Amino acid sequence: MNGLVVEAGDVHWLRADVALAAAARRQAAQLSRRLGFPEDRVARVELCVTEMATNLLKHAHDGSLALRVVRPAGRAAVECLSLDSGPGIHDLPRALVDGTSTAGSLGIGLGAIGRLADAHGLHSLHGRGTVVLARFWDEGPAPVPGPVVAGGLTRPISGEQMCGDTWAVRAAGDHGPGALLLMMCDGLGHGPLAARAAERAAGAFRDSARTSPVDVLQEVHQQLRGTRGAAVAVALIDVAARRVRLSGSGNVTSVVVTADARHGLPSMPGIVGVQMGRPRVFESDFPPGACLVMHTDGLSDRWRPADFPGLFAQDPVVTAAQILNQAAVRRDDAGVVVASHGQR
């Protein structure tokens, strides 16, 4: 089976200001009702985003909420993310106790946010910032994860609504159970034309029946002709072989993080859809506990795994969000996708 697993979709970014809580409640309710949530469940989502917003306004030096619908493998969920560059959480165990909250907030605390959500995650760096995730599934129990789980996040350049970066993940059943194919794409420039190139790349990736990174990259190249082009990298995670194979063209950073190392997988020079040289394949080991991180040049590539203690054992959405939170620049679109091979 080679169907789509998950993709970037539309992310609603809300910057921290005095109207944040009300705006977050409206957006969260709209997304929840779009998925057919009953009103009591809509209220739970609203409560979570209100607490997230209040915490940002009380403690963050700079912060945002990111709200979206994700549709992994035929299911759907509302995801609520809080990202800030505040002081971090000094006493994390205490902060996760129900009823512990910030002065002036609703008093439900981070622990209750985790209890209300179907899935949650939190990562905090002292003096650098915190990411909180709450996920609410449409109906029934959460899907059972495979051996490799993936997620990501995109954010447009300041002042734009459309993002020229995108990512997508699909199954690669030709390579055995759990094998995944990932794409990271950066449409050249920013704004509507970059977003158009990125969406066309995502469509080509979704529609392709191929699972070889080189073959998929060449198909994307053909589909992007007539656009301004993009930087694109495609990676195959072969669970059975414990290997990653990647082919890319343009400025996409791809890194395999293990317990004691960071191994880069380079992309070749070129512009997919405009002028792309002959693709090459680069490989790396991908043992249990490893993470593959792929991101655009809207993030600095100078980050080090040692700067993020505990992050790479988190839900990949939390991992992606914290890397974006710490490494992204405001003068460009930013996108990152992460695939994690089980827990460390």
From TrEMBL:
InterPro entries: HATPase_C_sf, HATPase_dom, PPM-type-like_dom_sf, PPM-type_phosphatase-like_dom, Ptase_RsbX
Pfam family membership, one: SpoIIE
Gene3D superfamilies: Histidine kinase-like ATPase, C-terminal domain, PPM-type phosphatase domain
Residue ranges occupied by any PPM-type phosphatase domain in the UniProt entry: 144-341
Domain of life: Bacteria
Name of protein: TorS-related protein
Species of origin: Streptomyces pilosus
